[in-house]
Every structure is written in structure tokens, then in C-alpha cells.
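The protein record passed on below.

***
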Amino acid sequence: MTKKNSSNLYNYDDYRIFLKNFLRDKTKNQRGSVGKLATSLGVNSAMVSQILHEKSHLSSEQALRLTRYYEFSTVETEYFMALVSMNRAGDKPTKDYYFEKVSKLASLGQTLKEQLDYQISNRPPDQGIYYSHWYYSAAWLLTSIAPQTKATFKQFLNLSDEALEPVLDFLTDAGMLEHNLGLYSFKGVHIQTDKDSEYLRQHHINWRLKAIQNLQAEGLNKNFHFTGPIVISKVDIKKINEKILDFLKEFREISNPSACEELVCLNIDWFTVV
């Protein structure tokens, strides 16, 4: 791992250097940003300044409060907490233990952030349309298997001409598909949105509703659906979190270089109910 002048958490092996750059990028040096962070951590501004100047450390409790204050993702939180523990370690075996954990989480985090090698459109109007229904991303992905016609789109997506037309028009205008002689072909433009965006939340909802439709139409015979509400200890929740992270890493390692043959969807929901 290396220390870079950016706020990408996974580039850092010292959380204090990351935090200094993160505050600079996120707050644009707004007055009071250090004070607001200090309040959220339950410490004074002088303590935060010492941390930013690498003269002191966050406690594990303060580190967790910070990840919640800035709404880090699950993987970001795991990485940041492990990074704090590694930086605070008092001996080499402990530091080595957390270094291995940090390295694993960094690999996973970077994998989840990567968008293969696509050009990215960040225009809000594009995001609003693209994430409005599941079949926008499905139509785009289908063309990576093979060029499609309107007839094959209708067959695979079960859409009417009236519903399909604006989808193909949008994807073509956005540079995501190329239309030539009745065939729609895949192009390397992808629409990306922030992790806390309303559009991403809608994307999750769309594909979960699609999973429900699949379950209603085909039952459990063809596909895999699992629902497991349980009551377990907080320690075991952390163990399962790690297992899920390991699986997602393997999932990306297998799926990214895989040949484009079938369109499938993986949904994972693992959350505290009450």
C-alpha cells in the first residue's frame, strides 16, 4: 500500500494521513470542520489536531463514531477500523496481524470501486433515467453477450414496444449502445453514481423487485433464493461480515474476467432488523 494525495481510503496505510486529506477534499477547508468532527467524536478540537498532525491516535470507539459520522460503507468501515488497529499496534505480531487484514480489505475495496475500464457519465439527468428501472442496465448488459435486435430485447426483457423504445433511445443517445442496421451493440460507457445517491438506492430496489418477480414466476426450482432471519451474537455478526467480504472478493475475481454468456443478478441483503 502507498500513501497518495487523494481521499481514496484504500490508498493509505496511515489513517491519520488519509483523514487529513479526506477532510481537505470533503470540506474544502470549511471553517469549523475540525470542530464539528471533534464534537461527533466527543473530544475537543485540540485532540483532533493532534491526530491530524500524527501526534496522537483515535481510540476504537472514536474511530467507529467517525465512520458513522461520515457514513462510510461497510467495507470502508471495516478497512478504517483495521487501519486504526494496525497503526495503534504495540508490537510486530499485532501489527502484522492487522496488516494482513488491511491488505485483504484494501483489495476488496478497490475491486468494488473499479468499473472495469468504462468511460463514465456522471450527468444527473442520465442517472435519473438509467436507474429508474431495472431493464435499462439489463438491456445494456445483454449487448455485452451479443448484439441484440428489438425482437430479442422484447423476448429477454418481456417489454412492449412502447416500453422498449425509450430505453433503446436513451442508451444509444448516452453512448452506451451503438445502433447499426437493426443491431444494438455494446459500447464502453457506463453511468456511475455515488454510494449515498438516491439513484443507487433506487437501483437496489429495482433489482430486488426483479428478484421477487423471478421468485413468483419460477419458484425455487431453477434459481437460488435464500431468506434467513435469525438472532445471533454481535461477535458472530462480525464473523459473518468477514465471510461475506471474502465471498464478494472471490465473486469479483471470478466474474470480472469471465466470458459474457448469461445475464444474472446477485442480491445480498444482510442487515439489522431491530
About this structure: The chain has two domains: 9-113, 116-274. The two ends are 38 Å apart (CA to CA). Residues 9-113 form a domain with the 434 Repressor (Amino-terminal Domain) fold (CATH 1.10.260). The longest helix spans residues 92-113.
